[in-house]
Amino acid sequence: MLSSSTWVPRGFAKEFPDKYELDDEEMERINQLAQLEINDAKEEIEELQNNGNASSDSPEEEEDDKPKTAKLGDQFEIDDDLKEYDLEHYDDDDEETQGSRVTMLPGLSNDAEFHEDEDGDEAYITLPNEEETVQDKQESQIYPTDNLILSTRTEDDVSFLDIHIYDDGADDLLDPEVPEGHERPNALYVHHDLMLPAFPLAVEWINFKPNQPEGESDIGNFAAVGTFDPQIEIWNLDCMDKAFPDIILGEPSGAPSLKKKSKKTKKNKHITTHHIDAVLSLSHNRSYRNILASTSADTTVKLWDLNTATAARSFNQIHSGKNVSSSQWHSTEQAILLTGGYDSRVALTDVRIQDDSKTSKYWSINGDVENVKWVNESQFLAGNDQGGVYCFDIRTLDKPIWTLQAHDAGISSLDVNQYVPEMLATSAMGEKTVKLWKIPTYTEGEVLKNGPSMVMSRDFGVGNVLTTSFAPDIEVAGNIVIGGVNKGLKMFDFFSNKAVRSNFKNELSKLQKQAREEAKEKGKQSRIARKYDGNYTETMIQVDDVDGDVESEDEGGDDDIDIA
């Protein structure tokens, strides 16, 4: 199951990601994190022991009613009896025939070994040979033309953040930048993954590196992940094989566990330092890059300072004490945050205003708000739990510009192409199709004669669709990734579909002209400016699993509704 996704623009990822090294400083940080988890476990054990029923009449009932911790204790006693057999070392290698393992030296794998010559004089270490090292480095290399795609995956109750690589390929024979014989098709595969503590609900890319010394660049490549746990994890995407996040937002060091605190916290009490329920959405401020907004099922909206890893501000009445489901910062007005909640309202909040009662302007819709999304600087969309989509203009009255009954169930994803704002993709909970719409442009004061029109409706084979995300770079502007309850992330290029090209003919022409001009300024050639001739083949790429199995398939469109 893929529950959320987002892209990383080209050029931000490190060409050769770092290998995780466990030094003394990192070990101390891990010990502190582990101690917090141990304290949580102890509190839960004490709670179970206090709630244990010690008054059972029969031995059978007594055994059945034993607290889990008591049964755990019995298991520990059994384990103590087995210690004399030293079974845990049963399969250990014979130390007389092999060198001792190197396990505490940073940068060395557990495959490295100490050895001595026959005289016992010269000690040496066996390491991977140069060919293996070079091959490993090449396999992990990320090129400036590659995109990263982040998706959150859950299998068998274990969750991961998958970091995919998308290579747009170099199969254009007319491209002067591709040497003869070096053509290659596009490719999508998992580069590495990171284990998460709970079921993920939101992932957001962050281009900020916290706590950089003066004079050093603070441009980074990080991901924030929100889960059913109240904490937010910040991961460095340029480091592989990490077991713990770089930063945890909302983890009160040395304090009682958040789980226990959340049980005892009154619903009307405003906790300003951390969330006490699931994190439903995340939005990174692209102007004030040290600021991350989060919304939660605890009804609050919080603004986090990534430099201090603390909540700089917390709002609890923007959505009248209801769940806050979605959020997005304005693209140019840095202090304006768009949010949607289960109070059937969309809020536009100026976070600079200190009086909470005067910070927000509201628009109402039918049903709970599931998603909000900016179309441009003045218009935004809101999707509800009944499959409806509403478009508002912040300069006009409360009435929507247009409404659309896009689906028969709650909107699960709502995404607008940033290079073609007339292109809207929607999906719904419990539905297997992704729908592409052409939405009308709007000028203030204009009375629209026509609303949105559907261009395509397609089942991409991911089961019930949970997430969609358009690419952020102009050279892959038509690409969208799709994830659902079935295994595998899929990518589709909408412009590769003939009906889509026909409906967005003028928009595509404008896009290609812009791409050509931007490439010329950099002294390069634009691939998208030459794409999509009359014979262009429609293709789709799928990643089946984390081992990187990729399936490319031609799409005939027999199961689609394509409206030319």
TrEMBL record:
InterPro entries listed in its UniProt record: PWP1, WD40/YVTN_repeat-like_dom_sf, WD40_repeat_CS, WD40_repeat_dom_sf, WD40_rpt
Alphabetized UniProt keyword annotations: Phosphoprotein, Repeat, WD repeat
Record's compositionally biased regions (Acidic residues): 544-564
GO cellular component: nucleus
WD-type repeats, residues: 272-314
Signal peptide: none
Chain intervals for the UniProt region annotation (Disordered): 37-79, 542-564
Top-level taxon of origin: Eukaryota
GO biological process: rRNA processing
Protein's name in the database: Periodic tryptophan protein 1
Gene that encodes the chain: PWP1
